[in-house]
Design goal:
single chain, Rossmann fold, 16 helices
């Protein structure tokens, strides 16, 4: 090394932009400035102190943290649970007092004088609890009127810093009506202009999910975060979790967690269904998590899925796209509610929105979410009530119950027009998803006018597990890099459609296609035979019928095909042509598609089952399903296709049944993928649908299915 380089002063930074820490090298000394900067020369060791208290030494480099100046740890992020690192970090971070640490702070003369009184007795090398109760630390903090940070809080901040992440909490984003939204912004520590990955919904931006309204809740989430990064597994029973997700109290009498009817949902990410900061920020992105209006401490009226919510999202995108640390390109990322919100805002076309990855989203709130098939059949129509104060919001569920027909002007939910969705997107369509997201994502891909769109079809656990798998994260990063960083990688050269073909007993393989639905699909008709309970290639000349109870959810009729003559792949939309009648004025019909093996046992096709089994009817989750309230059977001829019937669901088209009349109807069955092995059989199951809105017509009623001759009821399947 030349003397010229050796004698050159180099600038470094002490983490957290602490102003006033003393430093000394072999040739230089001084005090850190308001950015935490210090000077050193190549190869020198720097010793840091606060007043007379030496806090540690480290070889000079661009960024130094408390983990670097503890010799036995030496900046190893895997060792930050070391008690000296933890206690030193707690101590230094606590000196910010009531100022947000993320804003930087100054070591004042008052702090130095106080530390100098006790510095000889300060001991960082003790257990965390002992340090918390240490008499000297207690007195020192009391004299400064400061609060000692918890071990978890300190480690979380240190961990982010060591990964080059700076967090800004509760940043105000102005809205068009002179109000504001609150967001947590995760920036690269290194100054620059970066693309933004944003999410917006009503689940709360606290770690995992939720909002923080007191110190107990704050420490709870800090502990969750620390456990997550330290590899301490946490999970929540499925039913309990979704009650919490709605912001409600979990009742005492629930099925025990870890059982088939209440399986455990592992915490596999920092935030439920949104981007992990540790995946994206170190790779040169800014991650922003926005609490929507009426969520957390964001003021205002909570209006889930409304156009007002979409307009707020628009304002947040434009704010981020024009900020000093932004390169002007904003991408949206998230699943379920987050995906639904991004689809809505994309139709408003904010100028700085350049790409989005909606994982399991929806477009048409009537057909995809609330009234699939014309009945209130969805089990997940709930309101997210995550407010730090008194919750104030619009009860869209009860409003929807008063509007059983597709009347957009009366619905508080904003359904996007696919003709207005022009932004590049990579959508993920979930399989095994009960009652929502599957249809919506498929219809988004088919109908959005965007010239640059991709579709991935995968198991429902893609929402909670697969989206955080390294392979998938890298695909998503490549897509965002292409559109937000102008990196000309090969992601857009790949086939636009990537399907998970499930092979049964939890197996699968990937298959790429150029379009969806697949252009070469052969739509085969399997005709129902009520007498034999069969699905067959031709219709019977003799008419037959079968009857079942309308008010017994365990009552079902099945039609089973002949054994497959060869391995057969089904991928796309299914539909059922049905001739039926009832002893009452309506029918709520649910259709399940299942597969039976050579022994007549049902084949499970879920890849990793995370949805509770029905204790009354504990069968495998079906390959796919569909439903229809028969009074809503009127079709829209222009929007219906060969593979997918489209019902009008208009009040003027309402057609109740009378006098056991036999009616013809087409039931939409949601798209799916499945490979059926040679020798296995396809099974069509027809059961009563549970109409949450009004099931009075089902009581003591009997439904009939007609087949053969002029009643050519059939199941149509997509063979590729």
């Amino acid at each position: 090394m030349s003397n010229e380089i050796k004698n050159q002063n180099i600038k470094g930074k002490f983490a957290d932009r602490v102003d006033g820490i003393n430093y000394k090298t072999q040739t230089l000394s001084g005090v850190t400035d308001k950015e935490g900067k210090f000077e050193y020369r190549q190869g020198e060791t720097i010793t840091f102190s606060i007043g007379k208290l030496v806090i540690g030494s480290a070889i000079g480099k661009e960024l130094i943290t408390t983990a670097d100046i503890v010799y036995s740890v030496g900046g190893d992020i895997k060792k930050i649970k070391n008690r000296v690192v933890t206690n030193l970090s707690r101590f230094v971070q606590s000196l910010c007092g009531k100022i947000h640490l993320e804003k930087g702070f100054c070591i004042t003369n008052e702090i130095v004088d106080c530390i100098n009184k006790y510095y000889k007795k300060i001991n960082f090398d003790q257990e965390e609890d002992a340090f918390t109760k240490d008499a000297i630390i207690t007195v020192l903090m009391e004299e400064l009127n400061y609060t000692l940070r918890s071990p978890e809080h300190a480690r979380n901040h240190l961990r982010r810093t060591m990964n080059g992440i700076r967090k800004l909490t509760d940043v105000k984003i102005p809205t068009r009506d002179d109000s504001y939204l609150l967001a947590d912004v995760y920036l690269p520590i290194k100054a620059g202009k970066y693309p933004v990955i944003m999410s917006h919904a009503g689940y709360g931006k606290a770690f995992w999910f939720g909002c923080i309204s007191n110190e107990t809740e704050f420490q709870k989430h800090e502990k969750m975060e620390d456990n997550y990064f330290e590899g301490i597994k946490e999970s929540t029973p499925f039913i309990d979790f979704h009650i919490q997700l709605a912001g409600e109290e979990v009742p005492d009498q629930l099925p025990p967690g870890g059982t088939e009817i209440n399986p455990l949902l592992d915490h596999v990410s920092e935030g439920f269904e949104i981007a992990n900061t540790f995946d994206w920020v170190p790779d040169g992105y800014i991650v922003i998590r926005v609490d929507g209006r009426g969520t957390g401490n964001t003021p205002g009226m909570f209006e889930q899925f409304s156009k007002h919510e979409a307009e707020d999202y628009y304002d947040a995108i434009e704010w981020a796209g024009t900020h000093e640390w932004s390169n002007g390109n904003v991408g949206l990322y998230g699943a379920s509610y987050y995906a639904m919100d991004m689809i809505s805002v994309s139709s408003l076309q904010p100028p700085h929105l350049k790409a989005m990855i909606p994982i399991a989203g929806d477009v048409d709130y009537y057909r995809d979410v609330l009234y699939s098939g014309g009945g209130l059949f969805s089990p997940f129509s709930f309101i997210a009530k995550h407010s730090c104060g008194e919750w104030k919001g619009v009860d869209f569920v009860n409003i929807a119950k008063e509007q059983p027909f597709d009347e957009p002007d009366k619905c508080p939910c904003y359904s996007s027009n696919p003709d207005d969705i022009k932004v590049p997107f990579l959508a993920v369509m979930p399989l095994e998803c009960p009652g929502l997201h599957t249809r919506g994502t498929s219809e988004l891909y088919i109908n959005a006018v965007s010239e640059n769109k991709k579709l991935m079809i995968c198991s429902e656990v893609g929402v909670h597990f697969w989206m955080y798998k390294l392979e998938i994260v890298n695909q998503h990063k490549a897509f965002m890099a292409y559109w937000l960083k102008d990196e000309k990688n090969t992601i857009m050269d790949e086939a636009p459609v990537k399907m998970m073909i499930r092979t049964g007993i939890h197996g699968f393989y990937w298959k790429e296609e150029n379009e969806w639905p697949v252009a070469r699909t052969e739509y085969r008709k399997l005709y129902l035979n009520a007498d034999a309970g069969k699905l067959q290639k031709s219709t019977e000349e003799v008419e037959s019928k079968v009857e079942y109870k309308a008010d017994d959810m365990t009552s079902s009729i099945t039609f089973i095909s002949d054994a497959m003559e060869e391995d057969t792949t089904l991928a796309g939309y299914f539909k059922l042509k049905l001739f039926c009648s009832s002893t009452t004025e309506d029918m709520a019909v649910k259709v399940n598609i299942r597969v039976l093996d050579e022994d007549g046992e049902e084949v499970p096709y879920d890849v990793q089952y995370t949805v509770p089994k029905n204790p009354i009817n504990p069968k495998c989750y079906p390959v796919t399903s569909g439903s229809l309230k028969i009074s809503h059977r009127k079709l829209d001829a222009e929007k219906s296709t060969e593979y997918r019937p489209y019902h009008t669901h208009k009040s003027e088209d309402y057609r109740p049944l009378c006098n056991e009349e036999i009616v013809e109807c087409d039931i939409e069955i949601w798209p799916s993928t499945v490979e059926i092995r040679k020798g296995w059989r396809l099974c069509l199951e027809i059961v009563p649908a549970e109409d949450v809105l009004n099931n009075s017509y089902q009581k003591n009623a009997k439904n009939k299915i007609y087949t053969g001759n002029k009643y050519n009821s059939y199941l149509q399947v997509p063979v590729i």
